Amino acid sequence: MNSCLIPLGAIAGRQILTVEGVANGSLHPVQTAMAKLGGSQCGYCTPGFIMSLFAAYYDGTIESDEAIEGNLCRCTGYLPIRQAAKEAAQTPPVDHFAEALGHATPELTAIAYQSEAQQFYRPTSLRDVLTLLQQYPNATLVAGATDLGLELSWHRQVYPVMISLEAVPELKTIEQTSDWVEIGAAVPLSQIETQLHGVFPAMDEMLHWFAARQVRNRATLGGNIGTASPIGDMPPVLLALDARVRLASAAGERVIALADFFKGYRVTDLQAGEVIASIQILKGMTPGATRRLSQSYKIGKRGTDDISIVAAAYVVDLDQQNRIVHARLAYGGVAATPIRAIAVEQAIVGQTWDLPTIQRVKPMLHETFTPLDDLRGSADYRKRLVANLFEKFFVETSAAHAEVSA
Ligand SMILES: Cc1cc2nc3c(=O)[nH]c(=O)nc-3n(C[C@H](O)[C@H](O)[C@H](O)COP(=O)(O)OP(=O)(O)OC[C@H]3O[C@@H](n4cnc5c(N)ncnc54)[C@H](O)[C@@H]3O)c2cc1C
User: Fold this and answer.
1) Is 10 inside any structural domain?
2) Along the chain (406 residues), what's the average pLDDT of each consecutive run of 10 residues?
3) 20 to 30 Å CA-CA from 72: which of 230, 259, 324, 359?
4) CA nearest ligand 1 atom 6, residue
5) 21 in a domain, yes or no?
């Protein structure tokens, strides 16, 4: 995780290792390899690379680029760092760190900290969260803090009362049956990636491009929809999957469609005293459908660890005759909220899933939204992406189908 994004209160009950601390008398194998292979030049990014490689050394991912996708190097170049990772992988991780990792992680305990101007609570049940919210209806909920952390460290925002959700078991489980999935709002994205891998292809794809490993180890779906950012990457996927949001308060619970949760630019339907408890998604296809196609796309200036220019997610259900019986086209980065192209969805239902249909709706898609110009991309570029990504979806899914049929 990124230490600069963690509120100090969240550290309670955890061990902190520093780049000096991993050395333990002599250099750690990743430090030795980085020094030997010239993986450090100006040294500015080196502590971060060492800590990421250190973590990956123990979880067996050290040779994958994912281990360091959240670390930016601007002078050494990635080649010697990759070579150092390969070299370190040759030494088996048998030491006291490996032994400590073999022990069960201690459960997070409840905490209540108070300083002059701030209170930080970490309750350990949903009931306690809701009681605290009755007491402090305008408290700031904090899940992974990967969004709020920037407000704290960069904008020096002071939140008088913070309620952490990361020790609340009811918000940290993924339940699954053959028909539906319910994801606790405070489940870290990395856990969703592994536990739900293969269930929703569009979700797998977007999670892969979401920030970087360090952020996904902390970031949650509750936080991603809680920000109501128009460029949040998971809302288009969840909108395409017709996800519903379960909201809890001391007065009870309600479930609403995610599409109704977003009310305007960074405004949600969440009322004072409410918490996002979970996200519910049905697995099955529309009745009458025999095949489901789905995929998501993220267009940014670099692969990982970047903000979307446009994100898109599609779900199309087809019947035996290759006719569209259900369509969801959802986008981020093109309006004040994550949004669906509802008119286009309605227009293509009943049509044949072929290139002429796609060509017919592309002009309509191009005119569906009026995105903004900003430093990431022009309005015109975004409009073209809205249309062209749908065609890309058609081409890719058709090619995959042709391959399977052959
Ligand atoms: C380096 C970096 C890269 C990033 N890359 C991406 C990216 O690729 N794509 C992307 O979409 N985002 C990205 N983000 C933004 C951020 O990681 C996501 O928005 C993330 O999902 C936020 O989740 P969190 O648990 O950390 O939320 P927090 O920061 O804890 O909370 C965010 C907001 O949601 C509210 N909230 C959290 N949980 C709940 C709940 N259960 N009920 C009600 N309200 C709640 C909080 O009060 C707060 O207003 C990035 C951030 C960083 C720092």
Assistant:
1) no
2) 91 92 92 96 93 95 92 91 96 91 88 93 98 96 96 91 97 97 98 97 97 96 96 97 98 97 96 97 96 97 90 98 98 97 98 97 97 94 98 91 66
3) 230
4) 211
5) no
